[in-house]
Amino acid sequence: MVKFLKGVPFFSKVEGSSLEVLCQDLVVEYYEKGDCIIKKDTVGDAMFIIKAGLVKVHDANHQYSNLGPNDCFGEYALIDNEPRSASVTALEECELYKLESKRFVKLIGNDFGFIKGVLSVLIKRHRELDVIQENLAMSKSELERTNAKMSGLINGAMDIIIMFDGNYRILLANPAALKVLENTDVIQRNVLFFFNEPSATILEDLISSNKKGESKGINTMIPSKLKIIGSEGTETTTEGTISNTGSDAHRFYTLILRNLERRLENEKKISELTNQTKYLESEISELTNTYGIVAEDRTMKKVLGAIQQVAITDATVLIQGETGTGKELVARAIHEASHRNEKPLIRINCGAIPANLIESELFGHEKGAFTGATVSRKGRFLLADKGTIFLDEIGELPLELQPKLLRVIQEGEFDPLGSSATIKVDVRIIAATHRDLLKKSKEGNFREDLYYRLNVFPIAVPPLRKRGNDVILIANKMLEHFGKKLGKTISLLEDNAVESFKSYNWPGNVRELQNLIERAVIVSKNGKIDWKLIIPQSNNQSVETTLTDATEVILTSDELVALERENISKALKKCNWRVSGPNGAALLLNIPPTTLSSKIKAFGITRPI
After folding, report:
1. Torsions phi, psi of 180, nearest 5?
2. For residue range 235-262, what is the model confidence (pLDDT) as tens digits?
3. Stated pTM of the model
């Protein structure tokens, strides 16, 4: 028995003779499995030495440690009368030696060797405790520094970081996560409540697989995007990773997610800018010159003054004028002088697009909206958002589509084809026509309410024949332009040519002048042009003959248009509807084929079936 006590740390420094005396004061006690040896909060009166068996030190269900043979417990009961801080219960059959406190006090008083041995053990244990405390203090300080670094990393991260346990209860959420969750009180809440149903299912499947042992651990990219729904209802699309730490009994999961909303918004903006770039590139490729509006005549200066007046506003503008007078140049000038000039000017010719496609061109469509709609498409109005849209030949807009345009003007919104989502836009509208829209509205071919909405600020562009000397200025500008373009040095108009230019009626206006000048530069020799061969002569003669036969009746612009339309129709019939070539109507009318094609489209001339 003395040999056994020598192996007990508490008595390891006590001499054998003193241990023989101690043996006389020890009481043997036996306990069955589950017996309570010491109960927490009770005052102890003895210490115990384990001879055989196993016990646990615990507080309710929380277990501190297990003790076996040669271990002792309850030592503080020998020197104080304080309640015990933990319970001790037998885990199996146990044989214990019990030393009561009154017998311990008696031994100390009577046996100097006993007290000396016990004090040696206590002093050694105290020194060991000092070292342990010092190491703990150093570890605590290092832990605090490490924790501060980790907290700084987690709290400063722009990514969303959420840690939760196996029951999906949130244990940690960094500031970025709290912002997206729209809640500062998320600890111990179910993390799945903050995800939509498909996203919550993805997380549950990953974690269930991990719990079932289908995977030893999780440290992977989440296969699909996750959608977070904040406490205030804001939806945020994210992507990221999930990982786990800890044992099977105490497993923790960490979500690191990246907010995709800004990336998706940037991708959308890039897509819109790409579409705008493609559109603008196609627009630039259509331009045949870089000259602007040339005006010295008072009628055109009046137009320039109107441009300056209306450009600084967001008022809707209706530009009226004959075909080829430069209505698009006026629209561009208004846009460039406006506060929207950093945004695009989007142009669409309402008369050049088939009626069954123009709605999609203007307002866009969703995939599958109609046969052939294999992809979604943004309409011109969406491309023009914050900018200006120029609706050329507005008089050709189908009647059934006009209410939708009226809604955009009044409400600033529209629904793409095949979509129930309403899109809001901020667009300045400029329309142009060579038609008498008021007359068309009275005839029921154009909505009267739309006409008045468009006609907020009308600008009438005068025909070239009423602009006096402007025709000479524009012609000289064009000569310089096409001369440089074709690598030729061309002389400016001389006096004899000036008279020919001024006397010609220019039914095709500036567009006809442009085509004529380009052709003249192409056929020029040594910088000289024979304008008698270039400027049509039949135009004046035919008009003069018509006016004479009409007993000098003054024709209105609409009557002149009707007269020209009839003349073109006769030429087409005579040439069997051939436009260009040796036997074409363009040669018969002595105008370029491109000019004739524009007039056919503008006048709505169609070949009879």
Report:
1. -75, -35
2. 899 998 998 887 766 788 999 998 887 7
3. 0.47
